[in-house]
Amino acid sequence: MIYALVAAEDLYSERILMKNDYLLNMDLSKVACVRPDEAQWVKSPADGVSRKHLEREAEESGHTTSFVRFEPGSYFPEHTHPQGEEIYVLEGVFSDENGDYPAGSYLRNPPGSTHKPYTETGCTLFVKLEQFQADDTTLVALRPEDQHWRPGIGNLKVLPLHTHNTESTALVLWPDNEVFQPHTHWGGEEIVVIRGRFIDEYGEYPAGSWIRSPHMSKHFPRVEEETLILVKVGHLDNEPA
After folding, report:
1. Residues 145, 181: contact at Cβ < 8 Å?
2. CATH fold of 39-142, please?
3. What is the pLDDT of residues 26-65, one digit of tens each?
4. DSSP conformational letter for 20
5. CATH superfamily of domain region 148-233
6. I need a surface site. Which of 113, 151, 220, 232 has the fewest CB within 10 A?
7. Are strands 49-56 and 42-43 parallel, antiparallel or unpaired?
8. Residue 119: CB partners within 8 Å, gap ≥ 6?
9. pTM of the full predicted structure?
């Protein structure tokens, strides 16, 4: 009887461990960084579609952030986004039943939306799933020709993509040898380095890097070569996860 109870307890612990194995970078109160050589492409349930996981709450649901690569002619089955989907097209042409989206396109599919994504030529995406605020219900589809650059601080150029409450997303173009001011991230900051090399006092981040800095973190960023980044601010929990 004692053996049976111990065995049952061990089985329960094993199941909990297996469930927790899917968790990745889900403590939003901590810095997280993944450079291109620090994560592997992992096959998804759909043929020809693979992912680099950056944040992950569960195996195939919940809060997820990843790079997603579609081979030419591949598709993902029709699915619904209970809490929304955000996409930036890094390479190639991404498509769904609503249209074609070349590199540089920015998409927001609101909570409850459904689509069947595919590509004819192949594409690479940055994707955030199930992270919309409850009242953020606007469908967004911005192709490069719909986007307009504005002057930023210093010599930076900024291309706003989305703003809702405290959350803002934009592209920021840094010219050679630009140094920004030291600053604090109220509500956190998340960066994808699209091209070039981003630098701060904590390290260097080549193209393909992802950096998440928590609420009230600080840094002093700069670049040595022209660098393009995707930046999201004001969206991270203010309390530890």
Report:
1. no
2. Jelly Rolls (2.60.120)
3. 899 999 999 999 999 999 999 999 999 999 887 777 789 9
4. H
5. Jelly Rolls (2.60.120.10)
6. 151
7. antiparallel
8. 70, 72, 73, 74, 75, 92, 93, 94, 95
9. 0.89
